[in-house]
Amino acid sequence: MNAILCGMPKCGKSTIGRYLSKVCKISFTETDQLLRKQHQMTPRELFKQYGERSFREMEETVVGSLAGVKNQLISIGGGTLESEKNREILLNLGTVIYLKVDKEILKKRLKKHEPIFLDPIHFDESFEALWNKRTTVFEKIAQFQLDITGKTKEEVTAIILRELPINSR
Length: 169
Description:
alpha/beta; 7 helices; Rossmann fold
């Protein structure tokens, strides 16, 4: 079985994914890392140089390359599920797990990292718009939702393993 981790940027998808994959002894794939490897640029650099539309097209290509993978844990970028094409591929690929984190905690984390997709001058407004847009999609699409606010990676992993049949094959 494949499991797909989704959530807002800086929610802990990579940290949880690496730990969970180690515990389950399954491969861990991050779409942001696949983008970096394929284009020799970070997602931030790609977004800045080519704009959101081209970035999303590159992201769709990466997600499309995952079709048919088996027994993998996959972490997707925060905006990946905005694409209908990506949603269809990922829902057919495995169980989508939404890692929820308290809104104010995420806001503080993102403010430190100044993501390119948020307006630094109108940060609060752009964060609110992004939060509303993405959390609506995550809640609609994910088959499993888990509030991980204040939980350790070990606690989150234990909950996921209790609820879902993720194991090495």
